[in-house]
Amino acid sequence: MTATIPTQTLPEIIYPDSDGKPMSDNTKQFQLIVKIQGGIDALFKDNENVFVAGDLLWYPVEGDNKTRQSPDIMVVFGRPKGDRGSYKQWVEDNIAPQVVFEIISPGNRMGTIFKLFKFYDNYGVEEYYVYDPDDNELMGWVRNEGKLNYIESMEGWVSPRLEIRFETASGDLEIYRPDGLKFLSYVELSRQMEQAQKKADRLSEKLREMGINPEEV
Fold it and tell me: For the segment 154-171, what is each residue's pLDDT rounded down to a tens digit?
């Protein structure tokens, strides 16, 4: 009689969509994260294969749910837009985020930044940017010869991947698109739209005074 050896079923590995940490520690940090994520997303709105996310857990290694990080902003070229609970790299054609941003909060100082740097360096990030809004200090690293190298001067630096330009001379971080337009907050965008609408209304009224129907122009 032959004994039957039971098949051992390995437990399913769960990759949580949350690490239990807040997205930001204060309003300034949150506003910057939203502005940068939204600005980059808008810049690549017509490219379906650029995925931009904020505070999304990234798992680089299949079978390992402990090795993970949630960048404040990450940009992935070569992956489609769309909703995700987390970014599992092996499901995404094994493409690592190429660009990562971290906004420093009072609880995230150099020890934390160093740990993040090691993670991003190990797992293939091409560009890593860190901004401290309290000190208005911007730091950056770009991958060269297989490792992230420190960028000596960030003032006026243009991202090789994103083609956006960084400025801090005003006392705050300002980011400019390749067309020269500046990244704006939702409030700034709303005000800009209101001003444009008022200008259009004045022009329409002037045309009506001249006997011209603006709807026919």
Answer: 999 999 999 999 999 999
